[in-house]
Target: RNA helicase
Amino acid sequence: MSQFWKPGTERPRLVDDEEGGVLLYATSSSSSSGFGYGSLEKQRQRLPVYKYKTAILYSVETHATTIIVGETGSGKTTQIPQYLKEAGWAEGGRMIACTQPRRLAVQAVATRVAEEMDVKLGEEVGYTIRFEDITNEELTRVKFLTDGVLLREMMDDPLLSKYSVIMVDEAHERSLSTDILLGLLKKIQRRRPELRIIISSATIEAKSMAAFFNTRICRRRREEEQGPTKEPAILSVEGRGFNVELFYVDDPVSDYVQSAVSTVMSIHDQERMGDILVFLTGQDDIDTAIQLLTEEAQSSGKQGLVSVPLYSGLPRADQDLVFSPTPRGKRKVIFSTNIAETSLTLEGIVYVVDSGFSKQRFYNPISDIENLVVAPISKASARQRAGRAGRVRPGKCFRLYTEDYFSNEMSVVGIPEIQRSNLVSCVIQLKALGIDNILGFDWPASPSPESMIRALEILYSLGVLDDDAKLTSPTGFQVAEIPLDPLISKMILASCEFGCSEEIITIAAVLSIQSIWIPVRGVQKQLDEAKLRFAAAEGDHVTFLNVYKGFIQSNKSSKWCHKNFINYHAMRKVIEVREQLKRITQRLGIGLKSCEGDIQAVKKAITAGFFANAARLEPFSHNGMYKTLRTSQEVYIHPSSVLFRVNPKFIVYHSLVSTDRQYMRNVITIDPSWLTEAAPHFYQKQLHSSIPQ
DNA sequence: GAGCACTGC
Model:
């Protein structure tokens, strides 16, 4: 390995990551195994953040905004809410909120904090995530929630008046909801000077966050200002990770999959025992890498390697393999996507191999298409990946790019999600909160005006916004109320008119789940056959109705799912979402009605939401090429669709996925005259040119 | 002939 690698000139150092001392999937080390309160208290005091308790409380007392830079295992997430509670911030009926970008983290942190405070979860300490509200209105003083839920709460309580302090954790990840939340919190602060905001962020982002929240206008007027200082305070808390030594390649690699496999082999050869985590970009890479490694290990007679894939599409049981203990004398190699960068914490990793790439979403507002492309990661991501090696003992990280590339070419932080996404949901949420001047909204990072305008256009075409870009009544307000993509919400509202809301909320629930089929490559043929049992000539949406019906008739049986290659957990989720939609539609005064098999009604309701996603088969096309009616984009039916190779003339699709081609996922056949019925304004021009009568 | 990661009363 010494020929291949050169130690970086950068000195080995502590590497940060984001969880404040909470180890997901490591619940056995907590009090349930017999530690009493006293021991928990001692553990708390040993956390690095403990030393800063007074400083943090002082800063929160005197500053409107405090930015906490916390490294690995600093304990900030679990401890700061408790400090605030002890200092009296939850007195007088007030509450302390702490947001996380992910549900799992919310549950884990809340559970841990309840344990440390020796209270029952759901009483003094509670949490709220979608479908799960473990809080008690009278008792709960410290509340953990996803930032998406807090945004929803603002619809009822725009000033978030019940909270005295709001801590936004993992702000450096710059997720869509976090950015919207930060923009809104800044606005709230102006109206509620007594509100305190704590933002926990990685080092790299701290300064820009501070600049964003700095609302102090003029230095001289400082003495006249009432209340806390407007200029944010920045506090830094060290972590408790181990050293991770960094290595770079001498020359750029041409094939990072092959290179990752060779590196794993060298580590296995030359380094002491310890598991390896390899960051690749997707399922394809991962499958190829595992195959290559198996071959290389076989041909060189090397033993003792156990390779495990890890990506979100993997069935739950297979994902759990990653957490099973490595057999004695073996070395586990986990080939993972970005999922291991933030969402999952793996124990026992000592070596990290970083390809330097990940798949990232990019949105093109001109074509209104979201693309998934392999792109170089940022320095922040690279640090995060490296940090995964230093959790149990000092580790090593092998970067499959040159040190020169890292220093001079890699961007410091990634592009915030809000600048890479379709903004339709985001715009409607702001409108619902009464923010009229969307283009002038103060964001932590501004999205492009093109994306904003495109979102406004789409919402206008859906009849959600009027000529003055205000929410229409009742449609606009109703669509904003439903926590789904506005196109789906519109479809639900239309179903009322067509008398098929029972069917449409089922379809809406299925569409909001990733996939209801079991994702297995080896048994593709059986999966296709299973699909045929439910396939409807009208398309995928109607097929979903058949699957749902079968699932209900089987009495929601997991056996039935297994037999039919249907993902049982996904179907449970469908039931859950459907129940939620049922409640919401009832509140909106939409009566649930079944069309009793009138499929045309169902398809018309779908068209009412998705008219913009219409495509027409190219005449004389031999390979099933379609063009979208709106922008004449070349698109194809996705191979997973029941209409693949059927190629009906006119279709409406739910979404596009872009790989080497643009694939339409979930399609139904339509009659083109429905398009002009559903959106006359939208299709007026195209009517004569592209739709034959 | 094919699926980065999250999320929402």
The longest helix of chain A spans residues 568-587. Residues 241-417 of chain A form a domain with the Rossmann fold fold (CATH 3.40.50.300). Chain A has four domains: 27-237, 241-417, 424-584, 603-690. Chain A has a mean pLDDT of 86.
